[in-house]
Amino acid sequence: MSKIAANSAYRVPVRMDADAARARFALSRVARLATASADARPHLVPIVFALAGDVLYTAVDGKPKTTTALRRLANMAANPQVAVLVDHYEDDWTRLWWARADGTVRILALDVAEAVAALGLLTERYPGYATQRPPGPVIAVDVTRWSGWVAAPER
């Protein structure tokens, strides 16, 4: 018998339903945005985000980048399907979990009303945006599927 199976604290992993996955996702502060190019090359970047219903917003911010021709934007133009992941790690593996939002991207110019509202949500959540507004476009992800996994049911 494995040490994990012998550990009385170990519980069977549980898939999260969509509501639980979205709730855990909403409480997270940082996520990872996964895009793929037209030839299916994956690309992963950390992002900050805000949710409005089942729409996730992020923006290309002013932090230094090596180029303004960002791979994530080129990938989204070629393939608008994305995944966004949040997760929680602890050395106590019974407390591990992850939640994912799969969806379709829309790129919004900063002068579009939806982008203005999204920047307001992002600024409420991340005060640094109040003094350093993102100069790039706003990325809207229309979430079509929330999913997740938790190592053990809530105690």
Count of alpha and pi helical runs: 5
Largest sheet: 8 strands, antiparallel
User: Would you report the number of β strands?
Assistant: 8
Strand content: 35-45%
Uncertain runs: 1-8
The value of Rg in angstroms is 18 Å
Series of H and E elements: HEHEEEEHEEHHE
Structure write-up:
Helices cover 25% and strands 36% of the residues. The chain starts with a helix and ends in a 5-residue tail after the last strand. The chain contains 5 helices and 8 strands. Strand 4 and strand 5 form a beta hairpin. It has helices at residues 3-6, 18-27, 71-78, 113-125, 128-131, and strands spanning 14-16, 31-36, 42-47, 50-52, 55-59, 81-88, 97-108, 138-150.
Q: Could you give the topology of this structure?
A:
Elements: H1 3-6, E1 14-16, H2 18-27, E2 31-36, E3 42-47, E4 50-52, E5 55-59, H3 71-78, E6 81-88, E7 97-108, H4 113-125, H5 128-131, E8 138-150
Quick rundown:
The chain has 155 residues and is an alpha+beta fold. It is 25% helix and 36% strand.
Summary keywords:
155 residues; 25% helix
